């Protein structure tokens, strides 16, 4: 695709010698400017441009056989095109950083200038000793810092490459601290500790330019930062319990780190659980799982999230870097977004402190219990205990207990109620059994098949309707609760202060999204029951 770009396919032979001279001069200036930069920063950059190019050339060979996305990079990027752009844009940025080339692009798109971050990328590239990105610049958006196209970007372009060596992971902690950490301290807590450590070092920290770009506490809205009053807004959602669990985990980690705080009072004096929660929130909102456990990836963590994007952070263990490939074209000044994951609003609010309206990954947790007053309660629990086969871990989301189920939005026209799990419908069939004979039939059917209980519809239509009516009444009850609660939040309730406004919006997004899921399930269940009645 890039080969079709006019400036690269130009046939105007008369201009060719002129272009070649410019190119040679540009290469020489690039080389000299790199040398000057190295000397002025008194830092050891291990590779010069030539070695850098060799590395990229060698890297292409290694990419073959890697996953599809990496292979498509090779198809769309000829090495020549890559290396030309690489050196030229590197040069342009080095020479023009203070001239705000990107600022003019940003202001054209109505974006704010991010004065604080002008020197961030040059600093990081210096630290890494390689170019990280020639295509992106840092700017300000309505959602905090963001990355913008600094020039035309084509689908398949490599947007950035951040070497593992400049990522912050648990093994960056000083050995004296690491040896005090027991097995109980998780990776998120370790990176949070690292951030606290570097923060205390201030400008003496080797990460100071990065640490100073991280958001302040007032701008963080993850639900672990919400007050009790604010949390009340989401008490009907599974996010409520999940937030309490996360808060407990943070407190546990904080206590487990007490030994470190006591041993190094000069580095961690007066660290409070609030300070630790803040650092913990920074990690959950901007770190990726990695072969080093959990890694903060400077510069890549300025990407904002778009659930529909097909770009995400890839980890190349062979080349020891993280990279992101463009999933579409971008014009200069466009914000470039990636997908953090297929996350519901509940997860986005818990870990990142934002939500998206009409989130297609929204879901609702529904809990069913065998009532104690059911005369067959013991028999049902025994049967369920013997035939538990389903997995209850939902990828990328919360883990649920055995009697909770996840409902997703049932798309209109869905014949099989995709979105309502079969395991939930099976559970409802067991709940509606009103004789030992019915339970025995379900047990026999399970034994003759794959061992899972009540997966087939009851042969008796009325029994099948009863099972689904039971579900319908559970769902209808939740709908009523959600509707009541949403009404209470519009307009702003008196128990919330002005500062809570962004969090109220998050709560509303969460509840309306979950209500939409519930209503879709209700409509499908109604339809299923009326279809059974009429056939
Ligand atoms: C990985 S950081 C992205 C860079 C961040 N904007 C900054 O200022 O450094 C994730 C944070 O960016 C913000 N964010 C990312 N995508 C967003 C979106 N689609 N809507 C609102 N906020 C978003 C949230 O505050 C989130 O916690």
Radius of gyration: 28 Å
Give the helix tally. Answer: 21
Q: Give the N-to-C terminal Cα separation.
A: 56 Å
Overall mean pLDDT score? Answer: 81
**Main sheet summary:** 3 strands, antiparallel
Query: Which strands sit side by side, in order, in the main sheet?
Result: 3-8-7
DSSP strand content: 5-15%
Tally of DSSP β-strands: 11
Helix content: 40-55%
Low-confidence stretches: 1-14, 34-108
Q: Please, what is the oligomeric state?
A: single chain
Principal-axis shape: globular
List ligands, each type once: S-adenosylmethionine
- What structural category do the secondary elements indicate? mainly alpha
Protein name: SET domain-containing protein
GO biological process, one term: methylation
InterPro entries: Rubisco_LSMT_subst-bd, Rubisco_LSMT_subst-bd_sf, SET_dom, SET_dom_sf, SETD3_SETD6_MTase
GO molecular function: protein-lysine N-methyltransferase activity
Notes on the protein architecture:
By secondary structure, the protein is mainly alpha-helical. It contains 21 helices and eleven strands. A hairpin with a 2-residue loop joins strand 1 (136-141) and strand 2 (144-149). The structure holds S-adenosylmethionine (SAM). S-adenosylmethionine binds at residues 143-146, 215, 285-286, 301-302, 304-305, 352-354, 356.
């Amino acid at each position: 695709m890039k080969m079709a770009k006019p400036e690269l396919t130009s046939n105007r032979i008369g201009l060719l010698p002129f272009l070649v001279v410019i190119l040679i001069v540009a290469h020489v200036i690039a080389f000299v400017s790199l040398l000057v930069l190295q000397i002025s920063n008194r830092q050891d950059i291990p590779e010069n441009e030539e070695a850098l190019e060799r590395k990229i050339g060698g890297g292409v060979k290694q990419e073959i056989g890697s996953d599809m996305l990496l292979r498509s990079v090779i198809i769309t990027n000829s090495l020549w095109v890559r290396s030309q752009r690489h050196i030229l844009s590197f040069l342009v940025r080095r020479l023009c950083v203070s001239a705000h080339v990107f600022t003019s692009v940003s202001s054209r798109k109505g974006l704010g200038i991010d004065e604080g971050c002008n020197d961030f990328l040059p600093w990081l590239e210096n630290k890494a000793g390689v170019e990280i990105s020639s295509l992106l610049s840092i700017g300000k958006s309505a959602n905090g810092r963001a990355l913008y196209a600094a020039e035309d970007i084509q689908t398949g372009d490599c947007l950035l490459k951040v070497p593992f060596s400049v990522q912050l992971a648990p093994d960056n902690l000083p050995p004296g601290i690491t040896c005090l950490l027991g097995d109980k301290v998780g990776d998120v807590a370790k990176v949070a500790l690292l951030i606290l450590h570097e923060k205390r070092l201030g400008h003496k920290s080797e990460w100071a330019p990065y640490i100073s770009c991280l958001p302040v506490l007032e701008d963080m809205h993850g639900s672990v930062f919400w007050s009790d009053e604010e949390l009340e807004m989401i008490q009907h959602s599974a996010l409520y319990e999940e937030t309490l669990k996360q808060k407990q985990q943070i407190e546990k980690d904080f206590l487990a780190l007490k030994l470190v705080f006591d041993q190094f009072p000069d580095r961690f004096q007066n660290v409070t659980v609030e300070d630790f929660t803040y650092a913990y929130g920074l990690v959950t909102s901007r770190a990726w799982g990695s072969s080093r456990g959990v890694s903060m990836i400077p510069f890549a963590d300025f990407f904002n999230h778009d659930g529909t994007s097909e770009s995400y952070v890839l980890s190349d263990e062979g080349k020891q870097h993280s990279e992101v490939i463009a999933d579409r074209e971008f014009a200069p000044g466009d914000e470039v977004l990636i997908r953090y994951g297929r996350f519901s609003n509940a997860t986005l609010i818990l870990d990142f402190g934002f939500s998206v309206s009409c989130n297609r990954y929204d879901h609702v947790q529904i809990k069913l219990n065998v009532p104690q007053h059911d005369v067959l309660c013991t028999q049902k629990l025994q049967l369920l205990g013997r035939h538990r086969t389903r997995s209850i871990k939902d990828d990328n989301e919360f883990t649920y207990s055995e009697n909770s189920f996840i409902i997703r939005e049932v798309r209109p026209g869905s014949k099989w109620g995709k979105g309502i799990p079969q395991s939930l419908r099976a559970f409802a069939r067991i709940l509606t059994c009103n004789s030992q004979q019915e339970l025995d039939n379900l047990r026999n059917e399970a034994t003759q098949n794959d061992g899972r209980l009540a997966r087939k519809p009851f042969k008796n239509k009325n029994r099948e309707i009863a099972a689904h009516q039971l579900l319908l009444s559970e769902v209808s009850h939740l709908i009523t609760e959600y509707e009541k609660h949403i009404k209470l939040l519009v307009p702003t309730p008196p128990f919330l202060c002005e500062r809570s406004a962004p969090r109220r919006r998050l709560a509303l997004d969460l509840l309306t999204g979950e209500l939409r899921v519930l209503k879709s399930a209700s409509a499908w269940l109604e339809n299923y029951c009326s279809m059974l009645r009429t056939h």
